[in-house]
Input
Amino acid sequence: MVLVLVIGDLHIPHRVHDLPAKFKKLLVPGKIQQIICTGNICDKETFDYLRTIAGDIIVVKGDFDENPNFPQSKVVAHGNIRVGVLHGHQVIPWGDQESLDIIARQMEVDVLLSGHTHRFDAFENNNKFFINPGSATGAYSSISDTADPIPSFVLMDIQASVVVTYVYKLVEGEVKVEKLEYRKGDSGKVL
Output
């Protein structure tokens, strides 16, 4: 079992000052084995904070990241599950399911993580699983249908060919959790 925090579009300190306090209480060291960030961490201090939660951190470059050394995309293997990650500003139109499917095939991944829209989304298409963790801070977005994003992040529990995904959203001051499941090779729907 590998517990992976998927987080992105924090925009600290440019659009918000910090993660919501209720999220920070949940993100404690010693429980999460890896962090995958879909970009827009923005500053070194936020990167250093995430490193206190898990030493194994993978970050791709968002369109507002200051670190020029973050890669544009990355593929990570967890057993027989291949996970691809990119920020999402490269996907035209942004968040488009067909465009994401093409990228997943090009990267040869089972799970594709992307951000940029600041809106949580998860779906299965062509036996692949797609996750956008949304904005963990609820940072403002200029994209018309996400002008007031709901803060969210995802925890993925990867076990063999199964990815159990827990979606955390901050709705009206309360943390709500939703569970989704993807099975590699299953032509069924996300549960």
Helices lie at 21-26, 44-53, 97-107.
